[in-house]
Design a protein that fits this description.
heterodimer; A: 227 residues; alpha/beta; Methyltransferase, Methionine Synthase (B12-binding Domains), Chain A, domain 1; Rossmann fold; 2 domains; five-stranded parallel β-sheet; 9 helices; 62% helix; disordered N terminus; B: 294 residues; TIM Barrel; eight-stranded parallel β-sheet; 17% strand
């Protein structure tokens, strides 16, 4: 039955391409990622399926390699870039048909802290993980975080501090969110060199991760809980 | 070996200094204030910290210039002050040392990542060259490229520092990987030792990133992979926050207890990083004076 053979062949090719797209993200090849995503979309692959069955598993594999010390920050960054290249083509299609991102994250380093390497890394991995990220930059005041929750409806606040001297601003920001009456509207996640789980609990944050890969898992958990 | 380093090491391991930021905070530096700016605004307080380390037995003290490159200063709208802040920083340490200690000036990272395109090699080269020249002009007797996470950035800083002709120390942070024996970018002590040696640093080593216990094996591995003397400045251990105040639970005596192991592992210069104070350095100096020659 020639008809069946042709269908099988095309499915086989499509699967091969998805495997190649998966590998392009894992190895951080942004150009190939972009090209294969475009081809898959042109061929009629469902964008959400592409995300869930190919790109998310690819980033999971990147995370696994990071956890097992095969990957370090450079590899994370280039994989996040390859993921972003794919998502830039996919997101407009999802938005057009009303699919919402996983969550909207307002991220920044706390007031007084100008160290943004960790924050930038978390921001790109969150984007790669399917979140909409509002990057508020460095030295972000509690008022700015509050305004972002109120005006842009951020569902997650992610705060970073590198210094023991600036980490108290995390507590201040959480207090300010309470004062402004918006603490219940958001999940607050924190991270940075001096931060510990114990500190997160002490100041009433909703979560802490010691690295950027863990931060994405944490944000996903928070997003699920918020729904 | 650079003649300055050779002279310093002639009588065995050398005691360096401890943390500066926390010492300045104890003297009123506010949360989020830029410490390096105090070279201009609060020179007395900076000089006091330097004197405290000399009194504690530091044979080398650093300078309050860790963040005084124009990239970091630009965040404070102070880029044009880079030269002045660096020169003043060296002069304050020199005045405190009064010939009893050598002054090696601190060059910290830019705080930006080459890999993500936030900064270019040229911008880094210019910033480090400007800082190294200002430190040399101020009278520094050596330069310390410290707390580096990225070998590429460290290489650029070393090259800029070497142009001054001063001895150059280069040390990196090992805080990544399960065993905390990799840099943020994933390099091993062996790779770091080779790269820093190839880049022409006179002394290589590790600082910050983790408590002193983790430094012994890193020191050993660095030492085995280079012919350069090893520089170690460890943290006092992980801080905890109690009632909003940062506390380190390692005592000066406990810290100094690791010094014989570090010396045995090949350390030639020992001191402290985050969480250490003149008390820690005094304990380290006592330990070195009483321990037999390695």
């Amino acid at each position: 039955m020639p008809g069946v053979a042709i269908v099988d062949l095309s499915q086989h090719t499509a699967m091969l391409d998805l495997k190649r797209l998966h590998d392009a993200v894992v190895t951080g090849d942004a150009n190939t990622s972009r090209t294969l995503t475009q081809e898959a979309l042109t061929a009629g692959t469902d964008p959400l399926q592409l995300v869930n069955q190919c790109l998310v598993p690819a980033m999971d594999e990147v995370g696994r390699r990071f956890e097992s010390n095969e990957y370090f920050v450079p590899e994370l960054l280039i994989s996040a870039r390859a993921m972003k290249a794919a998502l830039e083509l996919i997101r407009p299609l999802l938005t057009a048909r009303g699919d919402k991102p996983l969550g909207r994250v307002a991220i920044g380093t706390v007031r007084g802290d100008l160290h943004d390497i960790g924050k930038n890394l978390v921001a790109s991995l969150l984007e790669g993980g399917g979140f909409e990220v509002i990057d508020l930059g460095v030295n972000v005041s509690p008022e700015t975080f509050i305004a972002t929750v109120k005006e842009k409806e951020a569902t997650i606040i992610a705060m970073s501090a590198l210094l023991t001297t600036t980490m108290p601003a995390m507590r201040t920001t959480i207090e300010a969110l309470k004062q402004a009456g918006v603490r219940d509207k958001v999940k607050v996640l924190i991270g940075g060199a001096p931060i510990t789980q114990k500190y997160a609990e002490e100041i009433g944050a909703d979560g802490y991760s010691e690295n950027a890969v863990g931060a994405v898992a944490l944000a996903k958990k928070a997003a699920t809980a918020a729904r | 070996m650079h003649p300055v380093i050779e002279r310093l090491l002639a009588n065995g391991p050398v005691v360096t200094d401890g943390a500066w930021g926390t010492q300045l905070q104890a003297r009123g530096l506010g949360l989020g204030d830029f410490p390096d700016l105090w070279n201009l605004s609060h020179p007395q307080a900076v000089a006091e910290v330097a004197r405290a380390y000399v009194a504690a037995g530091s044979q080398i003290i650093l300078t309050n210039t860790f963040g005084a490159n124009r990239i970091r200063l630009a965040e404070q709208a102070l880029a044009t002050k880079a030269g002045e802040i660096n020169r003043r920083g060296v002069k304050l340490s020199l005045a405190a040392a009064r010939g009893q200690a050598q002054v090696f000036a601190s060059i910290g990272p830019s705080g930006k990542m080459l890999l993500s395109g936030d900064i270019t090699p040229d911008e880094l080269r210019q910033a480090f060259t400007e800082q190294a020249r200002a430190l040399a002009a101020g009278g520094a007797e050596g330069l310390v490229v410290e707390t580096m996470s990225d070998l590429e950035e460290a290489r650029l800083a070393i090259a800029a520092a070497r142009e001054t002709g001063l001895p150059v120390v280069a040390c990196m942070v090992f805080d990544s990987g399960k065993a905390k024996d990799r840099t943020m970018m994933g390099q091993t002590p062996e790779q770091v030792a080779k790269a820093l040696t190839d880049a022409g640093a006179d002394v290589i080593g590790a600082n910050c990133g983790q408590g002193i216990a983790g430094f012994v094996s890193i020191c050993q591995r660095l030492h085995a992979a280079t012919d350069r003397p090893i520089w170690i400045k460890a943290n006092a251990g992980l801080p905890t926050v109690v009632d909003g105040k940062t506390q380190y639970h390692v005592t000066p005596a406990e810290f100094a207890g690791f010094i014989p192991d570090l010396i045995a592992a090949g350390a030639a210069f020992v001191g402290g990083c985050c969480g250490t104070s003149p008390e820690f350095i005094a304990a380290v100096a006592r330990c070195l004076r009483t321990s037999p020659e390695p």
